Amino acid sequence: MSFIYKKKLISPEELSSALPMSAQDVRRKKERDQEIRDIFSGRSDKFLVIMGPCSADHEDAVCDYVSRLAEVQEKVSSRILIIPRVFTNKPRTTGLGYKGIAHQPDPEKEPDLQEGLIAMRRLHLRVLAETGLTTADEMLYLEIWPYVEDLLSYVVIGARSVENQPYRFAVSGMDCPAGMKNPTSGDFSVMLNSCLAAQSSHTFIYRGYEVSTSGNPFTHCILRGAIDQDGQYVPNYHYEDLIRLHEMYAKYQLANPAVIIDANHANSGKIYSEQPRIVKEVLYSRSATPELAQLVKGVMIESYIEAGRQDISGRNYGQSLTDACLGWKESERLIYTIAEHV
Question: What is the pTM of this model?
Answer without folding.
Answer: 0.96
